[in-house]
Amino acid sequence: MAVQDIIPGPQPFADSARTLGRKRIMRHAGLFITLVLLWEFGSRIGWLDPLFYPRPSNIMWSFWLIYVQNGNVWYHLYATMSLVLMGWIGGSVLGIGLGALVGFNPVLRRFLKPYVIVLEATPRIAVAPLLIAALGFGASSKIAIIVLVCFFAPFINTLSGVINVDEERLELFRSLRASKMQVLRKLVLPDAIPIIMAGERLALTAALSGALVAEFIQRDEGIGSLILVYTRNLNMASAFACIFTLTILGFLIFKGMEKIDHYVAFWKYESGRERVSVKRRSAMAQVGASR
Length: 291
What we know:
Blueprint: H1 3-6, H2 10-44, H3 56-69, H4 73-104, H5 106-121, H6 124-135, H7 139-163, H8 167-175, H9 180-218, H10 223-232, H11 236-264, H12 270-290
Helix pairs in contact: 3-11, 4-5, 4-7, 4-9, 4-10, 6-7, 6-9, 7-9, 9-10, 9-11, 10-11
């Protein structure tokens, strides 16, 4: 009997993982459907006030109205997501750049770190009117609010990654007389990428909350302003449809950042290491075949 005949291949394990994943999805789907049916039943028999807790069937009809029949949500959705993207990019660039700079400079770290922590402890909703007073109404003040919301997670994670770099490898780089820029590019940032990506996931999901805060204050456009209009008119079904839209967006943003993390920091995950190994073996095979 050959060795490969007695050693199980990877296929049974893959099938088992897929079966387990399907069971988990079915379990969550069953729980969700049960909660929705209880909500619908409770609203119909009077356990829940339909003014504040509209029926799920009415919410689904509102999805049809705002997305298909009237189509008024698309402009506001575009306005909100544009602000989220611009604010997240600004907060990430500022947070990662300043975090790397402060992490490399102990003197600067002693002076700036306490102020950053105090800024993070200050409620954003309190700072938002000051930013609007300084920058005026419009997109610039909204983006500034989102940048402020997104800044801290990339900053503190980058700072932590830079400070906690492997000392033995750092000494090796110093013994080879590497410049600070080489140490940053070749050692510190690659080591810090996993923790930086964790901060980016938090920053992007927080950017959505920052956009809503800005839209609640200015009330001119965006999903936040649309929610205010619907609640003011007591159209709670459409308001819930907008809220669930934000919930779905937040979930998709988080899962999308997880996928990006699997590609950027691939060495953290077995699937990523295997994917890169397959690509390298394929590249080496092509080079060998060309010779």
